[in-house]
Amino acid sequence: MIRLLHLCNDEKFIDTAIDQFERLQNVKSVFVVCSRASIKYVKKHDVIILNNRTKVQNFVKSFTCDFVVLHSLYVSLVDISKIHRPIIWNSWGMDVYSDVSASRKKAITLSLYKPLTRKFINENLSFKSRIERFLSFLYKWKYIRSLKRVEYVSTVFPEEYDFIKKVKKNVSFFPFRYINIGDGVLNKITPIAFKGKYVLLGNSLDLTNNHLDILSNLESKKEHMTVIMPICYPQKNKKYKDKLQEYIKTLTYVHVFPIIEFMPFQEYISHISQCSCAIFGHIRQQAVGNITEMLKSGAKVFLYRDSFAYKHYTSMGCKVFCIEEDLMKRDMFDALDERIKLKNKVIVEKDTDPMNYMNQLQSFFDNL
After folding, report:
1. Which terminus of the chain, N or C, has less C-beta within 10 A?
2. Please, how many CA atoms are within 13 Å of residue 359, restricted to the half-sphere of its CB?
3. Mean pLDDT, to the nearest integer, of 287-310?
4. Beta strands at 172-173 and 254-259: parallel, antiparallel or unpaired
């Protein structure tokens, strides 16, 4: 029996992970959720909730396990270096990517922001952040040092693993993904029949969505349309949320429906299933679940050409569109050919097939 101690934040993906690990044979998992506030996203009851880093540290020291599983590097780098167990790291975009101007350099450094978004960031840069930029080498040293005990890592895109190997050479691949293995509502979305000009823009309030730049591009088309924009999390980006809400009031042609409060899953699905187009402005890996489901549903998906997602989905054979070129064409809202819809659907369903995926995950632990 392999004993795993999972450390995670209160995030909406964690219930999916719990479902998966509960179904594994000869694997015993204990999930510890660290949250100072009341739990909002994790709905599973069989978890341990700790409200500060000291309690997490003490629990890790006292708990007997074979591996500690980190669901993102959400804990401080100092705390990670103190974990005296082999670590399995389920990487997220936030702990793998950093912007070229960021003070905290990580495994993959890219230019994450388009001009209007970068302008907002620079105008609102705190004094502390400006100082940290001069000390970026120190964070990179801590980052690399914190990965010392990481023996396995999972990545959303296979291409990301190659970059992490450059930072941590002796790390092996862990075939874990946050895939819904139950009969989730998302799996039941049928190809979209809606012909209106509804657009899904982004997946969160994270600045890596580049909302300002994309809204500006859409407004320049001078074509009336409705944009559904989920900006209900993360809650810490209040200044950015205020900026977006101010900006959309200045638009003439683009009517934006911002989702500013976290809503029930079924209600969210009812909103996005009205969208015949979906635009994701991330350069780094992000919003993969949303992209996958929109491709399955038959929507047109627009991505930046220099994004990881564009390279990944085109290499798989999916038909996706380029923000730089295709977004400004007059046929933006024309429905996809049924053969293309079916091809996209078949590709992404094969890639996320729950049975095949769980067999891979079980095989990993059987051979560990």
Report:
1. N
2. 5
3. 93
4. unpaired
φ, ψ of residue 366 in degrees (nearest 5): -65, -30
In the DSSP assignment, the letter for residue 302 is E
Question: 20 to each of 62, 86, 268, 351, how far by Cα in Å?
Answer: 25, 21, 24, 17
Residue-wise pLDDT for 20-56, tens only, equals 999 999 999 999 999 888 888 898 888 999 988 899 9
Q: What's the chain's length in residues?
A: 368
Q: What confidence tens digit (pLDDT) does each residue in 205-218 have? A: 999 999 999 999 99
Helix (H) or strand (E) holding 151: strand 150-154
Contact 297, 273 (CB under 8 A): yes
In angstroms, the CA 131 to CA 129 distance is: 5
Q: Which helix (H) or strand (E) holds 71?
A: strand 67-71
For 253, the token pair is 């042609």
Burial 287-296 (b: 16+ CB within 10 A, else e): bbbbbbbbbb
CA distance 185 to 102: 38
241's tokens: 């949320």
